[in-house]
Specification:
With about 170 residues, the protein is mostly beta strands. Helices cover about 10% and strands about 35% of the residues. It starts with a helix and ends in an 8-residue tail after the last strand.
Length: about 170
């Protein structure tokens, strides 16, 4: 078997393995329930400079533990203009978990985090400054779901963003 063929098979196996890992998600704020966010806020328009709100805002007291909603690898830990202190985790099914407005971090770049592990604390960084403390949590797929595209404002981005509230198990 040629080297290229072996590499292609290895990549396909890796891709398939990512889809086989269970996606058992929990609400990523300690003590939060489905009443801790407005379910109509996902894909709400108009929403500030981002146009459409592509996640949910889970409200809690500043300093409340932010937990990994699922197991995964920390791809980014740092600061962004709108998100403030953020963490990005690659989880099962090749999906991205984005945690924003964090007060502090308790994890590291490229660390493996387990579901329910404390990774940060709720804050008011980025464009949440002066607003009630909350975690902005977005959930996206790196494999586009093109059938989700529609004619709404930024509707083409629906192929990437999923409503995280639809996936929480507790």
């Amino acid at each position: 078997m040629s080297r290229k063929r072996k590499l292609l098979i290895a990549l396909l196996l890796l891709l398939l393995t990512g889809f086989l890992i269970p996606n058992n998600m929990q609400i990523p704020v300690a003590g939060a329930t489905k009443n801790s966010w407005n379910p109509q806020s996902f894909w709400y328009y108009p929403w500030g400079k981002s146009g459409t709100h592509k996640g949910i805002d889970i409200f809690a007291k500043e300093g409340t533990d932010v937990l990994a909603s699922t197991s995964g690898i920390v791809l980014y830990k740092g600061e962004l203009a709108r998100g403030g202190n953020v963490i990005v985790v690659l989880g099962p099914k090749w999906r991205i978990h984005y945690y924003a407005h964090l007060k502090t971090f308790t994890t590291h770049f490229m660390a493996f985090v387990s579901r329910g592990e404390k990774i940060a604390e709720v804050g008011t960084t980025g464009n949440a400054k002066g607003k009630p403390p909350h975690l902005h949590y977005a959930y996206a797929t790196v494999i586009p779901y093109v059938w989700r595209i529609d004619g709404s404002i930024q509707g083409w981005k629906k192929m990437l963003y999923l409503n995280p509230g639809d996936f929480f198990n507790r």
